[in-house]
Design goal:
alpha/beta, binds ligand C2E, TIM Barrel, 14% strand, binds magnesium ion
C-alpha cells in the first residue's frame, strides 16, 4: 500500500494535529546558537565580576593603608605636638634647660611630618584633595617657626638660669596668644585628618556596596540568562519527545488505516507471550483475510479499496477489547491479538462478530459492496511455543478457512497440522516425481451435444506415485502451484499435449482439438507467449487445434494484464476457454473485454440439473448470455442422462463428463475414438 502524503493527511493527521513532524534542524541550530551566546555572555560577565572584585580588593587594600597612614601620621603629629608643648611647659615649670633638646627634636619631627602633609597628592587620593583645603600644614610650620624664635629665647634664658625672664616671656600675652592660635590650627589639622580617614573609609564602603550590587546584578543576570536557556532547551526536549513519540507512532502504525502495523504486531506479540508466561493466561492470534479483495480493487478502483480497508480497520477496532491489538499486517490481511484468553470460546465469539460485520453489503461512494472474510485462529501456549510458531499456525488455520470456501473461521488443530505436514511431504514428492517421470496425461473428450461430434479433448494431468498410487489432480495441483513446480510441470503438459495432438492427427484420427489447463502462475510469466509459440512450432500443431483453459479466478486476478496476453495468444491461433465458470466473482458482461471462444460451466451448476431450479435458471442465463457474446458453452461434469437432456434442450453447445466419456490414457482414447466414430452411437443418441 502506498504511503502518500495524501493518505497520511487522511489518516494520521487527525491523531497528531497540524504541526506534526516538522524538521527541527533549524530549531536545534537556534538552540546551539543560544547556548553559545549564553556561554560567551556568562564568561564575559564572570571575567568582569572577577576583575571588578579584584580591583575592589586592591582599592580596599590601598584605602585601608591610606587610612592607617593618615591615622598614624595624625598620631605622630599629636605625639610630637604634645612632646613639644610638654617640653616647653616642663622646662618653664622646672627651670631645667635640658628640656631644650626634647623640645628641639619634637619640633623638628613635627615640622618634618607637617612637611609630609604639604605634598597632599602623595598621601591622599586626588578626589579627596579638594576636601583637604582645611589642612594648611605650611601655615602651621610658619606658626611653629614663629613661635620657635620666642621659645629659643625662653631656653636661652633658662640656660643662663634666668627662669624669671624665661617665665615672663612664656607668660607673655602675645606668646600665649600665638600658642593658642597654633593649638587651634593644630586641632583643626587633626580634625581634618580624622575626617580624611573617615572619608576614605566611607568611600570604601560606597565602593564595596557598588561592587556588591554589580556582582549581585551580574549573578541575577546570569541566573536569568541560564533559566532562559534552560527553558529553550526544555522546550526543545519536549518537542523532541513529542517528535520521537510521533516517529515511534508512525513506525508502528499503518499509514492508511491508522491501526498498528507489523512492527507493533511484533512488539505486542512478544509482550503478550511474556505476559502469558507470567500469568498463565492464553493469547489468541486471529488472522483475518478479506476474500477476493483484489476483485474489489479491480472492479471499483483503489480509492474504494482503500476506503474499505479503513472501514474494516475501524470496525475491528470497535469490536476489540481494550487489551486486544488490531493490526494491519499488509495488503488485505489483518490480525487481532487477543490477550488474557480464557478459552477458545472468547476467540470464536469475536470471530463470529467479525464475520457478521460483513453480513450486509457496505456502501462506498454509492457502490454497494458485499465482501466476506476468512479467519484463522491459533492460541498460545496450546498451539505454539513461541511467536513465530503461533503466527505460522494461525496462518495454517487461515489457509484452511479459505480452503473450506472462505467466509468462515477455523481454529488451528491437529488435522490442519498433519495436512500441512502432508503438503510439505507432497512438495518433496512432486519434485521427485518430476525427475522420475511419474506424470502422465489423460484425455477426456468434449462432445458437441447436438451433432455428437468429438470436437476436443481436455488434457488432465495424472500422477502415479510409486507408493501411494494415483494421486488426483485436485490434490496435487494446488501444492504444485504453491511451490511453483507447476511452471516446469505445466510446460511439460503443454509440450506433451501438442505432440500428442500432432501424433493422433498423423495416425489418421480425426483432427481433434486439444485443450490444456494453464495455471494462474503460468500466466504471470513474462515469457509465456514465447514459450507457447516455441512449443507450437516445435510440435507442429496446426493453428486452431490448441485450446488453453484458464480458470475464472485467474481471469479476475489478472484482469488488466490478461486481456493483452489473451489477444496475443489468439493471434498465435490458440483458442481460449474459461474454466470452472460461475464459481468466481466475474460477470458475463466482464467477459466482453476478452477474446474468449468457450465458456466451461462449472460442475457445481450441472450436478443438480434439472432438479435445482436455481441452477436451471443460472445455467440457462449463462448459455443465453454467452451466445449473445458469440461464445460457445461447454457444460462440465455431465454424469447423468437427464442432465444431458436438459443441456441439449437449453441449447448448450458442448458437453464433458463421465456420462459421455471419462478421462483416458492416450491409447485408450485412440481406441475409444475409433470405436465411437465407427459406431457413431453415443449416449447422446440414446436420449433423443
Ligand atoms: P478442470 O480443468 O475443471 O478439469 C475437469 C475435472 O473434472 C477433471 O478432474 C476431470 O477428471 C473431472 N471430471 C470430468 N468429468 C467429470 C464428471 O462427470 N464428474 C466429476 N465429478 N468429475 C469430472 P481432475 O483431472 O482431477 O482435475 C481437476 C482439476 O485439476 C482440473 O479441473 C484442473 O483445474 C486441474 N488440472 C488438471 N490437469 C491440469 C494441468 O495439466 N494443469 C493445470 N494447471 N491444472 C490441471
Ligand atoms: Mg479444465
Ligand atoms: Mg473445470
Amino acid at each position: 500500500m502506498l504511503f502518500t502524503a495524501d493518505l497520511y493527511s487522511k489518516s494520521l493527521k487527525p491523531i497528531f494535529g497540524e504541526n506534526t513532524i516538522k524538521p527541527t534542524a533549524a530549531y536545534k541550530n537556534n538552540i546551539e546558537w543560544s547556548v553559545k551566546v549564553a556561554v560567551s555572555i556568562s564568561l564575559l560577565v564572570i571575567v568582569a565580576g572577577i576583575w571588578s572584585t579584584y580591583t575592589t580588593s586592591k582599592i580596599t587594600q590601598s584605602k585601608i593603608d591610606q587610612s592607617l597612614k593618615i591615622e598614624q601620621l595624625s598620631q605622630q603629629l599629636t605625639n610630637h605636638y604634645q612632646g613639644l608643648s610638654n617640653a616647653l611647659t616642663l622646662a618653664i615649670n622646672s627651670g631645667d634647660k635640658h628640656w631644650k633638646n626634647s623640645h628641639q627634636s619634637h619640633r623638628m619631627m613635627l615640622i618634618e611630618k607637617l612637611k609630609m602633609l604639604t605634598d597632599k597628592s602623595q598621601l591622599f587620593d586626588s578626589h579627596l584633595i579638594n576636601g583637604l583645603s582645611k589642612i594648611d600644614p605650611a601655615g602651621l610650620i610658619a606658626s611653629l617657626n614663629n613661635a620657635a624664635k620666642t621659645e629659643v629665647t625662653i631656653f636661652n634664658h633658662l640656660e643662663r638660669q634666668q627662669a624669671d625672664k624665661a617665665f615672663a616671656i612664656y607668660r607673655d600675652f602675645e606668646f600665649q596668644q600665638q600658642k593658642l592660635t597654633q593649638q587651634q590650627a593644630f586641632n583643626e589639622l587633626q580634625a581634618a585628618l580624622k575626617q580624611q580617614a573617615t572619608d576614605i573609609i566611607n568611600s570604601l564602603q560606597l565602593r564595596l556596596i557598588k561592587t556588591t550590587a554589580l556582582l549581585s546584578l551580574q549573578i541575577i543576570g546570569l541566573i536569568a540568562l541560564w533559566l532562559y536557556v534552560r527553558r529553550i532547551i526544555r522546550r526543545w526536549h519536549d518537542k523532541q519527545k513529542i517528535r520521537s513519540t510521533e516517529l515511534l507512532y508512525l513506525a508502528q502504525h499503518d499509514a492508511l488505516t491508522g491501526i498498528g502495523n507489523r512492527a507493533l504486531f511484533e512488539l505486542r506479540m512478544a509482550d503478550g507471550i511474556k505476559q502469558s508466561r507470567r500469568n498463565a493466561n492464553g493469547i489468541g492470534l486471529m488472522l483475518i483475510d478479506i476474500d477476493h479483495f483484489k476483485t474489489v480493487n479491480d472492479q471499483y478502483g483503489h480509492a474504494i479499496g482503500d476506503q474499505l480497508l479503513i472501514k474494516i480497520a475501524s470496525e475491528l477496532e470497535l469490536l476489540s477489547r481494550e487489551s486486544d491489538t488490531v493490526i494491519r499486517l499488509g495488503g488485505d490481511e489483518f490480525a487481532m491479538i487477543l490477550t488474557n484468553l480464557e478459552s477458545q470460546y472468547n476467540a470464536s465469539t469475536i470471530s463470529k462478530k467479525v464475520l457478521s460485520l460483513f453480513d450486509e453489503p457496505m456502501l462506498f461512494d454509492s457502490h454497494k459492496i458485499k465482501i466476506s472474510v476468512s479467519i484463522g485462529i491459533a492460541s498460545f501456549p496450546d498451539d505454539a511455543e513461541d511467536h513465530d510458531e503461533l503466527l505460522r499456525k494461525a496462518d495454517m488455520a487461515l489457509y484452511e478457512a479459505k480452503r473450506k470456501g472462505r467466509n468462515n473461521f477455523q481454529f488451528f488443530n491437529a488435522a490442519i497440522d498433519s495436512a500441512a505436514k502432508q503438503k510439505i511431504d507432497m512438495q518433496d514428492d512432486l519434485l521427485d516425481a518430476l525427475k522420475k517421470d511419474q506424470f502422465s496425461l489423460h484425455y477426456q473428450p468434449i462432445i458437441d451435444i447436438r451433432t455428437e461430434q468429438v470436437i476436443s479433448v481436455e488434457t488432465l494431468l495424472r500422477w502415479q506415485h510409486p507408493k501411494k498410487g494415483d494421486i488426483p489432480a485436485s490434490e496435487f495441483i494446488a501444492v504444485a502451484e504453491e511451490s511453483r513446480l507447476i511452471l516446469p510441470l505445466g510446460q511439460w503438459v503443454l509440450k506433451q499435449a501438442c505432440q500428442q495432438q500432432v501424433q493422433w492427427q498423423q495416425q489418421g484420427l480425426s483432427a481433434v482439438n486439444i485443450a490444456v489447463n494453464l495455471s494462474a502462475l503460468q500466466f504471470h510469466q513474462a515469457h509465456l507467449l514465447e514459450a507457447v509459440e516455441k512449443i507450437m512450432n516445435e510440435s507442429g500443431i496446426q493453428h486452431g487445434k490448441l485450446t488453453i483453459e484458464i480458470t475464472e479466478s485467474t481471469l479476475m486476478e489478472q484482469a488488466d494484464s490478461l486481456a493483452v496476453k489473451l489477444h496475443a495468444l489468439r493471434s498465435l491461433g490458440v483458442n481460449i476457454a474459461i474454466d470452472d465458470f460461475g464459481t468466481g466473482y466475474s460477470s458475463l458482461s466482464h467477459l466482453k473485454r476478452f477474446p474468449i471462444n468457450h465458456l466451461k460451466v462449472d460442475r457445481e451448476f450441472t450436478q443438480q440439473l434439472p432438479s435445482n431450479l436455481r441452477d436451471v435458471a443460472i445455467t440457462r442465463s449463462m448459455i443465453k448470455m454467452a451466445h449473445e457474446l458469440g461464445i460457445t458453452v461447454i457444460a462440465e461434469g455431465i454424469e447423468q442422462q437427464d442432465q444431458l437432456k436438459f443441456l441439449v434442450d437449453a441449447n448448450c453447445d458442448f458437453g464433458q463428463g463421465y456420462f459421455l466419456a471419462e478421462p483416458m490414457a492416450s491409447n485408450e482414447f485412440k481406441q475409444w475414438l475409433r470405436h465411437y466414430q465407427q459406431q457413431n452411437t453415443s449416449n447422446i443418441h440414446s436420449i433423443r
